[in-house]
Each structure stands twice: as structure tokens, then as C-alpha cells.
Write a structure and sequence with these properties.
Structural class: alpha+beta
CATH class of the largest domain: Mainly Beta
Order of helices and strands: HHHEEEEEEHEEEEE
Shape: elongated
Number of helices: 4
Number of strands: 11
């Protein structure tokens, strides 16, 4: 930028400031407009301190840089989402494991697991319908580690529909329930972003997937 010294005339200062910031975008154009207005309206006997012009330009330049950074971040996020869609699209038809608090019951058994950080004297998997009716799968006393389960709709008398699922323990721990299902499709939603449709679970976010188990033989 051409410096604005106390020996320069207002017209010279305006020309120098304009040359220094031309082409820097909307923020720079705004700065030019403000700079020219300030110079035109300043008291010739008490001219504006040139350092104030420099400080103003610095602040506006910083604002423009932040706007550019935000724009670049949005572009990077969009690119990452596109890559994620392509990667997950290649997994359609694979078996995945999803962390969830609900299941979608049909006619087939649903398999899953949960992990106990510590042992508990009494462990149960509780399946609750929309009306509040509960079915329990007891596991008795269990030590720390993974516990596998199978939810058989016929054995439990469950009709087709969506149910909540959770683990109850005597110790009060509430481990996360993980359910296995087939990744049926991947789609982009304008409001929800990337959405996966997984059998036995329904629609979930990519972050809910805890394992890719490959395609069924």
C-alpha cells in the first residue's frame, strides 16, 4: 500500500489508497469508499492521522481474510462430504454394526452386542414398544466384556414396528447397544446431511456406524 504521509494532499492520499486495495473484493471496495469519504470531509487544517487509515485497512483486510477462510472451509467440508458419499456408497450391501437406541423389527431375528466395562450381578436387554410394553432378555450375572444377543420377534411376541432398546444392569451402568444390519442405501439430505439406511435400525448418521463387517457370503 502507498503510505499516506502528512505532506500528501487529500487527492494524492485517495489515489494511493485506492491503488493499494483495488481488486481485493467487496471488503476492499467498502474500504475505498469509506477512505475517500473520510478524506473529502476531513478538516484541511486538521487532517486525519494517516495511521488511522492504515489501522482501518488492516481491520478490514483481516475481516476479508476470515471471510475467505470460512468460504474455503465450507468448500472443503462439501468436498469431504462428497468423498464420504462415494466411499459409503461402495459399502452398500455390506453388513455393518450400528450404535443405536432403537430397532426396526420385522420377521427376522436381530443380532447385536453390548460391552460391559465392569461385571454386574444382573444384566438384561429391554425392548420397549411405542405403547410402552416391555420385553426383557435376561443374561444373569456377567463379567466385563462383550455380550452378544439375538432378538427373536416370534419368541418375544413382537409385531413389526419400531422399538426402543437399552441395557439394564444391577450396577447402574448403561452400555451402548450395537445392532448388526445390512447397509441398504446412502443418500444426501438438504436438512440432515449424509443419511444411511440400515436394515434392523432405519436411518442413521455415518458416525453411528461402529464396524464394517463385509458382505454376507
Amino acid at each position: 500500500m502507498t503510505s499516506i504521509s502528512s505532506t500528501q494532499y487529500p487527492g494524492d492520499a485517495a489515489a494511493g489508497g485506492h491503488a493499494a486495495i483495488a481488486g481485493n473484493g467487496e471488503v476492499s471496495q467498502l474500504f475505498t469508499t469509506l477512505l475517500v469519504a473520510q478524506i473529502k470531509n476531513q478538516n484541511p487544517l486538521e487532517p486525519q492521522d494517516p495511521s488511522e487509515f492504515v489501522a482501518q485497512m488492516t481491520q478490514l483486510s483481516q475481516m476479508e481474510a476470515l471471510q475467505a477462510l470460512a468460504s474455503q472451509s465450507r468448500a472443503n467440508n462439501a468436498m469431504l462430504e462428497s468423498l464420504q458419499v462415494v466411499a459409503l456408497g461402495g459399502q452398500v450391501g455390506s453388513q455393518v454394526t450400528v450404535a443405536t437406541d432403537r430397532i426396526v423389527v420385522g420377521s427376522d431375528p436381530i443380532e447385536g452386542r453390548f460391552t460391559l466395562e465392569d461385571g454386574s450381578a444382573e444384566v438384561s436387554l429391554v425392548v420397549t414398544s411405542a405403547s410402552g410394553a416391555q420385553r426383557r432378555i435376561p443374561f444373569g450375572t456377567r463379567g466385563a466384556g462383550d455380550v452378544s444377543f439375538t432378538i427373536d420377534p416370534h419368541a418375544l411376541g413382537l409385531v413389526a414396528g419400531t422399538y426402543s432398546v437399552r441395557v439394564e444392569t444391577a450396577s447402574g451402568a448403561t452400555p451402548v447397544v450395537e445392532v448388526n444390519g445390512n447397509l441398504e442405501n446412502v443418500r444426501m439430505s438438504a436438512t440432515e446431511g449424509l443419511v444411511l439406511n440400515v436394515a434392523n435400525v432405519g436411518q442413521v448418521a455415518p458416525a453411528a456406524i461402529t464396524a464394517f463387517n463385509g458382505r454376507a457370503g
